[in-house]
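S1.2 Input.
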Amino acid sequence: MSNHAVKPKMPQSWKHPKVWNAFGILFFVFAVAFPLLIAHPWTKDYKISWPTVTGQVLETRIVVVGQIEHQYQPGEIDYQAEAHVIFERNGVQ
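S1.3 Output.
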């Protein structure tokens, strides 16, 4: 008489939760912590002090920059905003 419902036993080391905890910690270190340490996002200076000037907008317009055609879906049109501005900085216009 054979018993088809009997499954082969999993190795005892894989059943232990400490093994899975170790895999979880290694995954976190290599997938999250290690790239952050390489990139150093906290050391970059994102607050650049740009000079402030007063200006006057003379004209604005929307211009078509390009068109992208797709075979099985509607195409795309890329637009760009342009502004003609006069400003003065350190007495120079």
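S1.4 Remarks. The chain has two helices and two strands.
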